[in-house]
């Protein structure tokens, strides 16, 4: 383990009413270990702080609702959360896992994907290997699917910059209530910030309760919090099982959220080769609507 660094992830959301200011001025005292402006600047220089899923710099300005993540270096290995994770792709630099629904990616708790990674991934022999692999981005707790994980410090920085430059392509499947157009683009801002989501309808089923259920292919071009869920709700087609943004009286309970990250494309941080990873959504994405249509046809 000599030369390897472990980190613990801390997340902070800038509260409403906060005055716009430089991130280096704002963060003093926000995270443990970053009690001075000097320590904040050093951490920013080391690439330990991300701002809305992008590597932060001293030039960044913060606004209410912004998400800031601090990868705090620690000297002792963390306790492993015993959760089996399906590993879709893995080498010495990077891995892609299939995140199960209902588990947060990281945070100030034990039951996280981050704490489960060491039990499912192989240790990297690279000189700059992280003692604990680090997720490079986030998925909502209720969302399942593909999650990119960095196993080295260089990979983490390289992949974070790809997210910052919007060169990583992500695609989701969602089952929504209703019958949308064959395809479309949603551009309504989220919290006064640009947000763009494209969708394509793959299949539609009849339903007694919901009239229609539709399987969509969804491609977010920006990465706002809950973007897909908010945009589809605004369009009039909330995601099945969405207890936060769903329509009262039509919320499907105890079946989970029907949203899954099914495809990723990125550039490998060491080989510079394009990596394309794809999975099928959970079987409930087709089984539940098919059963709904059978009941509709029997009435």
From TrEMBL:
<comment type="similarity">
    <text>Belongs to the pseudouridine synthase RluA family.</text>
</comment>
<comment type="function">
    <text>Responsible for synthesis of pseudouridine from uracil.</text>
</comment>
<feature type="active site">
    <location>
        <position position="140"/>
    </location>
</feature>
<dbReference type="InterPro" id="IPR020103">
    <property type="entry name" value="PsdUridine_synth_cat_dom_sf"/>
</dbReference>
<dbReference type="InterPro" id="IPR006224">
    <property type="entry name" value="PsdUridine_synth_RluA-like_CS"/>
</dbReference>
<dbReference type="GO" id="GO:0140098">
    <property type="term" value="F:catalytic activity, acting on RNA"/>
</dbReference>
<dbReference type="GO" id="GO:0000455">
    <property type="term" value="P:enzyme-directed rRNA pseudouridine synthesis"/>
</dbReference>
<dbReference type="InterPro" id="IPR006145">
    <property type="entry name" value="PsdUridine_synth_RsuA/RluA"/>
</dbReference>
<dbReference type="GO" id="GO:0003723">
    <property type="term" value="F:RNA binding"/>
</dbReference>
<keyword id="KW-0694">RNA-binding</keyword>
<dbReference type="InterPro" id="IPR006225">
    <property type="entry name" value="PsdUridine_synth_RluC/D"/>
</dbReference>
<keyword id="KW-0413">Isomerase</keyword>
<dbReference type="Pfam" id="PF00849">
    <property type="entry name" value="PseudoU_synth_2"/>
</dbReference>
<protein>
    <recommendedName>
        <fullName>Pseudouridine synthase</fullName>
        <ecNumber>5.4.99.-</ecNumber>
    </recommendedName>
</protein>
<dbReference type="InterPro" id="IPR050188">
    <property type="entry name" value="RluA_PseudoU_synthase"/>
</dbReference>
<feature type="domain" description="Pseudouridine synthase RsuA/RluA-like">
    <location>
        <begin position="94"/>
        <end position="233"/>
    </location>
</feature>
<dbReference type="GO" id="GO:0009982">
    <property type="term" value="F:pseudouridine synthase activity"/>
</dbReference>
